[in-house]
Amino acid sequence: MPQSLSNLLYHMVWSTKYRCPVITDFREDLYHYIYSTITREGGKVFAINGTNDHIHVAAKLLPKHKVSALLHVIKGNSSRWINEQNKSENTFMWQAGYGAFSISKSKLKCIIQYIKNQEKHHRLKSFKDEYIELLQLHDIEYDERHLWN
User: What pTM was computed for the model?
Assistant: First the structure.
């Protein structure tokens, strides 16, 4: 095969340290910062949204991207930016881990809508319940003792 072709779609989720509700009035600026980071790396963002304690991103990444490395850059650079810009009252930190789930093209519109409706969704379900549901839906084994550090 003379070409390498791909359509690598991901739903990525991560939380603030200890799920502290600190993403407040700078939320849109943060989303723009994350969007810019992903697009600068050659990715395509379909949706970014969340609540005051976590973020969801649907994006198409390039084959060269290692999801863990890209999220390390996104989380590290965005927390440094938040702190340097004094966007948060206290030192801002992300939780160490993340969730990354592959998306089929046929489910992308559903995931985008799901991400866009985060505020409404979380009136009925906590982030913890949502995250465990995502892990179970994707058959990911986990030890709950290590999910919330």
Answer: 0.90
